[in-house]
Amino acid sequence: MPFDKFAVHKDSPAAEKAWADHEILNAFYGPVPKAPRRTPMRELISTILSHRTTHADEELAYDRMLEAFGDWPGVLAAPTPDLAHAIRTTRWPDTQAPRIQEVLRRIQAETGGSFTLDFLADWPVERGMAWLTDMPGIGLKTASLLLLFNYRKPVLPVDAHVHRVAQRVGFLGPKVSVEKAHSVLLALLPPDAEALFNFHKHNYWHGQQICFFLRPNCPRCPLKGFCNYYQEHYGEATPEALAATPTQWDSNAWGKLPH
Ligand code: SF4
C-alpha cells in the first residue's frame, strides 16, 4: 500500500492511521525474527499454563510436566491430580490440568492418534480458528498467535499492548474490547500474513517499551504526529518535536528488544 507519513494526521481515516503505524514502526524497530518462537504444541499448551502466571513459573510448570510424564501420551494418561501437582507453579493448576488433557484428547481424535497440529496448515483460516477456540482455555488471542506465528495464516492477535497503542493513536475506538479488536483491526489491514505479523510484533514491543500503560514515553515515540493521545495531552506535534524524535530504536542506549 502506498504511504506518505506527512499526509497522515490525527483525523485521517482509521485504515490510513493503522497503515502509517505499521510503516513507521517497521522502520523504527526493524526486522522481526521470522522463526516461530516455539513449536505449535508448545505454543498451545504453554498458553494454557500461562494464564495469570509469570513466564518463569509457566516454563517451570511445562518442564516439570514433561519431566514427570515424559511425553504427550504420558501427560494424557496421567492421573489428573498428579498432573495438577506437576504444574503447581501456575495460577490454577486444578483447572488447567483437566483442560490440558481435554485439549490433548481432541488433538488425538483429530489426527487419529498423533500429537501434532500441522493439519491446521492445510485448513482454511475460519475452520482453524473455530476448531481452536472451541477448546477449553483457548481464546481468540491464542488461536490467532498460533495460526499467525506457526502457520503464517493472515490473522491478527491482539493483546493488551496492541490494544492500548491502537486506541491511543486512534485507529481503534475507545470502547472496543480486546476481543472485538481482533476483527476490527484485521479489517483495517491488508490480508497479508507478513504485514500482520510485523504489525502485531511492533505494536506489542511499542506497548512494552514506549507506550506504557502509565506515563507513555511520548517524546521518544515516532507515532506522535498523528496520535490522538499525544495531541490531547501535548497539543499538535511541532516541527521541533518531530525533528527531535528518534527514527530508530537505539538498542545500545535503551536496551535490546525482547523477541
Ligand atoms: S505518542 Fe505517546 S500515547 Fe501516542 S502512541 Fe506514542 S507513546 Fe503512545
CATH topology of the largest domain: Endonuclease Iii, domain 2
Mind summarizing the main beta sheet? Answer: none
Tell me the count of domains. Answer: 2
Q: Based on CA inertia axes, which overall geometry fits? A: elongated
CATH level 1 class label of the largest domain:
Mainly Alpha
Mean pLDDT, as a whole number? 94
| Distinct ligands | iron/sulfur cluster
Structural Rg: 20 Å
At a glance:
Helices cover 57% and strands 0% of the residues.
Give short descriptive properties of this protein.
259 residues; mainly alpha; Endonuclease Iii, domain 2; Endonuclease III, domain 1; 2 domains; 57% helix; 0% strand; elongated; binds iron/sulfur cluster
What does this structure look like?
The protein is built from 14 helices and no strands. With 259 residues, it is mainly α. It has two domains: 14-30 and 156-251, Endonuclease Iii, domain 2 (Orthogonal Bundle); 40-150, Endonuclease III, domain 1 (Orthogonal Bundle), CATH 1.10.340.30. Helix content is 57%, strand content 0%. The protein has helices spanning 14-29, 40-49, 55-69, 72-77, 80-86, 93-111, 125-133, 140-150, 160-169, 178-188, 193-209, 228-234, 239-243, 251-254. The structure holds iron/sulfur cluster. Iron/sulfur cluster is lined by residues 165, 168-169, 210-211, 216-218, 221, 223-224, 227, 229-230.
List the helices and strands and how they pair.
Blueprint: H1 14-29, H2 40-49, H3 55-69, H4 72-77, H5 80-86, H6 93-111, H7 125-133, H8 140-150, H9 160-169, H10 178-188, H11 193-209, H12 228-234, H13 239-243, H14 251-254
The protein binds iron/sulfur cluster.
Iron/sulfur cluster binds next to helix 9 and helix 12.
